[in-house]
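Hi P.,

Sorry for the delay on this. The queue was packed all week, but I finally got your sequence through. Input first:
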Amino acid sequence: MAAPADIAPPVPVAERAQRLARWLPAAGAVLVVALYVAFKNTAVLPHDDDASLFHWLNDARDWVDENRNTSPFFLYFVNYVRLGVAELFTLFQTALTALGWPGLIGVAAGLGWLAGGWRIALVSVVGFAGIGALGLWDASVDTLALTLSSVLLSLVIGIPIGILTGRSPRVRRIVSPVLDVMQIMPTFSYLSPIVLLFLIGPASATIATMIYAIPPAIRITALAIQRVPPTAVEASESLGATGGQTLRKVRLPMALNTITLGVNQTIAAALSMVPLVALIAAPGLGVDLIRALARVNVGAALVPGIAIVIIAIVLDRITRSAAVSRARSSAVRWAGFAVAIVAGLALTPVLAPEFPEQWQIQIIRPINDVVGWIEANWYGFTGFLNDTVAYGLLNPLQDVLTSAPWWLITIAVLGFAWRFSGLRAGLVAAGCLVAIAALSLWEHGMETLTIVLVASVITIAVGLALGIAAARSRWFAAVLRPILDAAQTMPSFSYLLPAVALFGNGRFTAIIASLIYAVPVVARLVEDGVRAVPGTVVEAARSAGSTDRQLLWKVQLPMAKSSLLLAANQGIVMTLAMVVIGALVGAGALGYDVVAGIAQQEDYGKGLAAGVALVLLGVMLDRITQGASGRPNSKKKRIA
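Then the structure:
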């Protein structure tokens, strides 16, 4: 009989469960692979352009067209909204055009002086004069009118909702998920329903831009109201002030600076959307971008993109200065404002209404010459890169996703999301995939998911490398910052043309465009996360003998986990939005379905369903990555 000391102690139940939990992901992966091999090419749901759902949606569109002038809903609500928004755009367009180029530059200079002094006024003058020098004055005025119309509507609707959201937890619980979906939603996805209700033209373009721009107005206003010190509110109420008086005299004045920054972000969002609504007959710089895209003319696409960047910079500087400037007295600022406006208006009848042609500069040909040189000398490298990604990543992954049974992919996503983000996120992700299958768009959904996954991996890898380098080197961060600023400000359409020139039409072009579009946000979030690691922790790790590599991998990155997961979340969502726009340069899949639904009446139903499928894909990816940041670490200390 063995001695008692030789008998192994029983393994605690908790430790056995922990060991089993560590093996479950690997066992699940092996099971999924085995099921894929066994059921490959079964229940794959191939795409069908004649799906009954598409025909039903076409019939619904026909009903709307037939009843537009008889249904009370359209007669007394939709039509009045459309006419009112169109009149608002016309009012801004007429006023800006009547000012002429001297008057508009004078108004911009006056607002700049009022907001931040002579420096901001100079930025405004140089900026708007630069737009005229690019030869795009009239189109820029239309873009500015569309932007101001949509921003005004966003603020009129968004600020009151933001105030209610900031004051009421109940309203916040209702509004927050709606805003989440609005921000996840690719812009293409709601163009079709907007056109169905409001037809094409400035009205529908203004409403579509408003939908895209209103979430920052609501969120930042709510944040501003929440940040008002409770002691100030309690003091007001203790003096007998009503809720309305406290709001007008305490909450809003103390939140005004932050609300003004919300106006800034609303303007930036509107300007980024304006080029896209050219697809639904909106006037402005987006028309020039679309034409250049059709002709594959890189120079002609970059010039309107530069004009939009200039407008964004001028409006950004004015609104930011208005939020923080307290340096000048009111009299000085108002005097500068009056002088600038009077000078501009006085010059309007004297100078020609058109911006002088002799002051214009031509940069399209030099840009195209540079692009031609790159095409001629870099063809071998760009072709190799394109083929490597296509045959090494895109095609194999797409073959797997389109040949696997739809139920197997749904179960795999459910398990993956459950493991990393919790059961609720897993159920939401699986429900989104089931809904995509019900929309008869499974195959195109998997093709879009393929491009998004590959683009996201490349984007996150590049953004992670740049963010870490910027966090660890001040001079590299200083060099990188203006590059990221320019990439974030440039309209997304402008990225497509250089990518087309280098790589031709196709999926990889959409990936490159999404890389330029999403990397700035990922890099900034990674840099902020790594820099936020407490200096005492870094010093303690160094004093313990950690090398730079050990410090990064064992201290800084683990402590910046929440920022890294947020960076991944934002990178994936932004990649999805850009990949969809890539449908214009041959990326295909759901993006092509949406574009076809806008352009061709017979494909309206398919386009509308594709827009819903894109939202579902975005929600699925967002829930997985957003939920992962809140998951507790599964590794626990063993019981001795």
